[in-house]
Write a structure and sequence with these properties.
The chain is α/β, with parallel strands linked by helices. The chain is 44% helix and 13% strand. The protein binds ligand V47 and iron/sulfur cluster.
């Protein structure tokens, strides 16, 4: 039977960690046995110039002439894609800042170019925040934007930009960003267009357990109404070089990360996967998360800028062999997948 929001809250606050992880692991085992899914992928963060200034973000630059601002051209993006595809990448995870100058056609052509050069690779591109930005600059609806991008080669939407959906928290950590309802509306529309998506939750900053459960509840309701989420990804707030540092100077504990993974596995009963995003959890905690409800380790990544700008200490990438070894060392079975969860022997 489905657990309620108050039961989930009680688990968060009161369940002994070991019992909670065991319960969530049993649920993960029931769904996936000892399988852990991973993807040979590359992240491409095409620009760090952004019109927004989310307080937790250490990646973005407001001024495009800042010495650390960048904005890659198509050739650079293509070269990065090629490097990854040459070593077997099945997914390109493409997200960036909201650049003030590029018209919507810039993004359509970016995908068209990649699709033309690399017909087989999955293009998991643009968060709901970027989709809302493209809608704003082009005068189109998010539905029209996504239909056009799908036609240009888009396979799936990543789950970024959700942060904490409750508006009171959003107003404090990312004022001016699309609302929680707008984020949900983009994902609802994507699912209706048969574009699968993921959902994230940025936690470990100023939010309460109630905010986290409210966030998961909204995701669970949307997945009931318009299914299309593959994975839920708890994102661990990193505190360096951002405007929230003075208020939240430390990262949350491994115990809090594991509790969040476990509660999400138990509460989000209509989500196929919970992802242990090793870049943010750190490898040690990500390995523990594989025994606390997580069934996916995300990917090889190769290049990561958003979390590393905010102080991540893990490497920026892992080889496919290393990813599989890590999973096997946990007594689990690695299963290679692509962005659409097609699996490969
Ligand atoms: O949207 C920004 C977050 C997200 C910080 O869909 C931060 O498969 C922690 O969404 N500390 C991008 N997080 C990452 C993301 C993602 C990652 C892996 C897989 C998928 C997927 C999606 O990172 C942003 C924002 O929410 N972020 N700054 C920070 N200081
Ligand atoms: Fe821009 Fe995304 Fe950073 Fe917010 S999190 S400032 S939208 S790049």
């Amino acid at each position: 039977m489905r657990i309620t929001t108050s039961e989930a809250l009680d688990l968060f606050k009161n369940a002994p960690l070991e019992d909670l992880c065991k319960m969530a692991d049993a649920e993960k085992q029931r769904r996936h046995g000892d399988k852990v899914f991973w993807v040979n992928n590359r992240q491409i963060n095409y620009t760090n110039v952004c019109v927004l200034h989310c307080k937790f973000c250490a990646f973005s630059r407001i001024k495009k002439d800042s010495p650390t601002a960048y904005d890659w051209d198509y050739q650079t993006i293509r070269n990065k894609a090629e490097e990854a595809i040459d070593i077997g990448a099945r997914e390109l995870h493409i997200v960036g800042g909201l650049h003030p100058d590029h018209p919507f056609t810039y993004y359509i052509d970016m995908l068209r170019d990649l699709r033309h050069e690399f017909p087989k690779v999955n293009l998991k591109a643009f968060t709901a925040v970027e989709i809302c930005h493209f809608a704003k600059i082009s005068g189109q609806t998010p539905e029209q934007i996504m239909a056009t991008l799908k036609d240009a080669g888009l396979d799936a939407l990543p789950g970024g930009g959700a942060e904490i959906l409750r508006q009171e928290v959003r107003d404090k950590i990312c004022p001016g960003k699309e609302t929680g309802d707008e984020w949900l509306a983009v994902h609802r529309a994507a699912h209706k267009l048969d574009i699968p998506t993921n959902a994230t939750m940025l936690f470990g900053h100023i939010e309460s357990y109630e905010d986290r459960i409210d966030h998961m509840d909204r995701l669970r309701k949307l997945q009931d109404e318009a299914p299309g989420f593959f994975a839920f990804i708890p994102l661990v707030y990193h505190p360096e070089h951002n405007a929230l540092h003075n208020i939240v100077p430390n990262m949350t504990s491994p115990e809090d990360i594991l509790r969040t993974v476990a509660v999400s596995r138990l509460f989000l009963d209509n989500f196929p996967h919970i992802k242990a995003y090793w870049i943010q959890m750190g490898i040690e905690t990500a390995m523990k998360a594989l025994h606390a409800g997580a069934s996916d380790l995300d990917g090889t990544i190769i290049e990561e800028k958003i979390t590393h700008a905010a102080g991540a200490k893990v490497p920026v990438g892992l080889t496919p062999a290393k990813m599989q070894d890590l999973i096997r060392e946990q007594g689990l079975t690695p299963v290679e997948r692509d962005a659409k969860y097609e699996t490969y022997p």
